[in-house]
Amino acid sequence: MHILVIGGAGYIGSHVVKALLKNGMDVTVFDNLSSGDRINYFQGAEYIEDDILNIPALEKALSNNIDAVIHLAAKKAVGESMEKPELYAVNNICGAINILNAMSKFGVKNLIFSSSAAVYGIPEYVPMDENHPINPISFYGFTKSDMEKYFEWYDALKGIKFVSLRYFNAVGYDEDGDVKGLDKNPQNLLPIVMETAKGIRSQMSIFGNDYDTPDGTCIRDYIHVTDLADAHVRAVKYLSDGGKSQKINLGTEKGVSVLEMVTRAEKLIGKKINFSFAPRRAGDPPILLSSAHKAKEVLGWSAGNSSDIDNIILSTWKVYNL
Ligand code: UFG
């Protein structure tokens, strides 16, 4: 099987490429290196350095006997999306439409998409299952839910089947050390904790300590990127076996608060992390917690030991010290 991984040199993409190659698939990566890095290039994969907004380049990539597309090339910072919606609208929504049109043109019928827990907005109940109402409170989350709607229409009108994987919080790094590129200019919690522990940053902020949660800070469901990558391989196989379109949460059903993450990291790493409480960040729901039921039922997937929070912290710390 020949898989086109759009965004395959990025943080999640490079882990997905490794998993696909390990499963004997042929891989072509299409990436503009805006957040990805050449250091993530895997031997055995082909690389095209280009942008999803460049339609001729995308069409050329899709014309090369592709069996399935994995689309991970989206802008992904919640805070930034609230300040620069135009960037997110063009890259995420127009980019996805370009991919769908190119797939239609060349008869590529299977699509795996990196969606997000951010589509749900403020939970009406937890853990959230896939039937939870979709009410994103960040523009980033809106772009993901909007893209899912395009996929539904292109399924109905063009027969493109999709699996939309709604990731909860992706963290960690390949534990074999094969993926070396650290996220450039990270805006997510764990890399910022790591950079603060390393002294790359002198301090960090915890955004909001007045949420309605046990310690007042936000709760998230952290999932190891190696576990996420495995779900993509399963989703490719599911669609190639004739599976119908699906939206599937990827999470652990376990919540960790921001304060717990910071204090646990201090303890495990043995370093003081200089943090202070700051106002809430726009677009942050107080809690995101995934039901893991459907992923198990449809893909036979559940989070492994990699997603244990101590392992997540320690394996990430290891990569920051390579
Ligand atoms: N946080 C801080 N300080 C920081 C950074 C983050 O307190 O310096 C807090 C946030 O306010 C939030 C929690 O840590 O409460 C997690 O924030 P992240 O930015 O790490 O991730 P999000 O919860 O915003 O996750 C969203 C989507 C995910 C997606 C992720 C990728 O919901 O699906 O962005 O950016 F994977």
Question: Could you walk me through the main structural features you see in this protein, from its secondary elements to its overall organization?
Answer:
This protein is α/β, with parallel strands linked by helices and 322 residues long. Helices cover 39% and strands 17% of the residues. It is built from ten helices and 13 strands. Strands 3-2-1-4-5-6-11 form a seven-stranded parallel β-sheet, sandwiched between helices. It has a two-stranded parallel sheet with strand order 7-10. Strand 1, helix 1 and strand 2 form a beta-alpha-beta unit. Helix 6 packs parallel to helix 8. The chain starts with a strand and ends with a helix. The mean pLDDT is 95. Uridine-5'-diphosphate-4-deoxy-4-fluoro-alpha-D-galactose binds next to strand 7, helix 6 and strand 8.
Comma- or semicolon-separated keywords:
10 helices, 7-stranded parallel sheet, binds uridine-5'-diphosphate-4-deoxy-4-fluoro-alpha-D-galactose, globular, 322 residues, two-stranded parallel sheet, alpha/beta
